[in-house]
Amino acid sequence: MKIRVNDVELYYEVTGQGRPLIMIHGNGEDHHIFDIANQELKKYFQVYLVDSRGHGSSSKINSYHYQDMALDIKEMIIQLDLKDVIYYGYSDGGVVGLLLASQYPQLISKLIVSGANLHPRGVAQECYQEMKTEYKKTKSPLIKMMLEEPHIDSRDLKQIQASTLILAGEHDLILEEHTRKIARHIPRSQLEIIPGEDHGSYIVDSRKIAHYIIDFIKKDDCCHR
Description:
This protein is an alpha/beta fold. Helices cover 38% and strands 25% of the residues. The longest helix has 16 residues.
């Protein structure tokens, strides 16, 4: 399916029944990275697997900005009249989730974020230098976005009202102290650094992320009954 938001068309697939769970992939990927996890998730939720603007089967664009992506999801939620929304974002999708939940806190009831950063230097130095080198070769607008954005501060994070789970791998390319800072400044957040995992090993083509999402939602619902 496609939906028109902010002068682009977003492609998305819907599976399952229940509360809406929006899932957003990382840089240069598409919704298919969640295909395996979705086999579990659709048993519990109505899962919205979205291709971000410029990715997958969504509209092609020339320049990329996290803020535009956040506004796309905001408009999608409003147009589809989704309520009690659970948002999961991986990497760039996590950045989008932090922006969305901080700027429009009434739209998101639960937020799960994996491997997100607040600013470009939140990634390991080696990774940052590799991105710079790759950009010099390719001039990729996707890499340009990662080198220049996002710019989220602690005051933004404090605006998030959703119950939040912050995830990262033990060997993530996001600096651990950076991930801990994110969790520390979100009022209703939990943090889990996952042993033995890297940036995407428990997410991309993996069933593991489904269990982290399901367990968090179940436990959080129990706590707020």
